[in-house]
Amino acid sequence: xxVLTGATGGIGTALALALARRGKxxxxxxxxxxxxxxxxxxxxxxxxxxTVHACDLRDQEAVSHMAAAILQDGVPEAVIALAGHSIHRGxxxxxxxxxxxxxxxxxxxxxxxxxxxxxxxxxxxxxxxxVVAVTSATTRIxxxxxxxxxxxxxxxxTWLRALRPEASARGVxxxxxxxxxxxxxxxxxxxxxxxxxxxxPEQAAAMVLRALDGDRSLISPxxxxxxxxxxxxxxxxxxxxxxxxxxxxxxxxxxDRSARPFRSLRHRAPERRS
Length: 274
Ligand SMILES: NC(=O)c1ccc[n+]([C@@H]2O[C@H](COP(=O)([O-])OP(=O)(O)OC[C@H]3O[C@@H](n4cnc5c(N)ncnc54)[C@H](OP(=O)(O)O)[C@@H]3O)[C@@H](O)[C@H]2O)c1
Known about the structure:
Elements: E1 2-5, H1 10-21, E2 25-30, H2 33-45, E3 49-54, H3 60-72, E4 78-81, H4 91-94, H5 99-126, E5 129-136, H6 147-169, E6 172-179, H7 188-191, H8 201-213, E7 218-219, H9 222-233, H10 235-253
Parallel strand pairs: 1-2, 1-4, 2-3, 4-5, 5-6, 6-7
Bound molecules: NADP nicotinamide-adenine-dinucleotide phosphate.
NADP nicotinamide-adenine-dinucleotide phosphate binds near residues 57 and 185.
């Protein structure tokens, strides 16, 4: 049994169908019950079996109930924490919006952590299993506009890094996939429906399958690893370059060339007070 959150999204659907072709039993989770049921039908057609749990990861009690319901059917061989939510806002648009962090922390950190903790205990007791969490290639490099998203994703990453040594000693491997840009509904509002350099959902699903099948702790694009080292070694220079380059990067990725730098990063003369 493999538990998959974010199953109805772009990457989740591709991944669920790939796992179905392996004949797996999937526990599919997201908030929208109708979409989950439709996906479960496709999973069965593709050769797998599926049960569904509609659950909002921001509701910790609901997450605990879902974990208990899953465990009634057995101990999963793997948990894939794929669900995520992103908000793209520059600094000026972020002022007065601390609730962005609260919203994203529920979906990207607290909900997945609650689910993983509940399932990890019996997996450790059984002495085998795999936890795969999908974060973002932007978490370890300064990326203007993605502050709340990167903070909550790297929170999950840091939490799992600290759990990894003990979990691994009990037979449960933990792998984080730092996903680059993928052409899904999540990327569309910022970069359009077909961004340059983006992976297809199937290519992204293949990255997650690599994390599931192997024994690696981190799967990440080469440039994200270099970026992580550079931003640790030269944080001020990296921040300067990221600020200067963000409008250029957005225009490069977006084919319709309508992307604009954030207002906060364009030069603005100070307002005169009369
Ligand atoms: N697309 C990219 O460029 C990109 C880049 C880096 C990392 N990622 C990460 O890859 C993962 C999958 O992204 P995607 O591109 O497939 O996104 P997507 O198409 O927007 O799918 C997001 C999935 O998460 C579920 N979800 C969202 N909020 C939820 C909540 N509060 N509770 C439970 N489920 C929730 C959605 O279903 P419901 O709305 O029905 O709940 C959906 O199944 C995410 O973790 C994302 O952060 C994506």
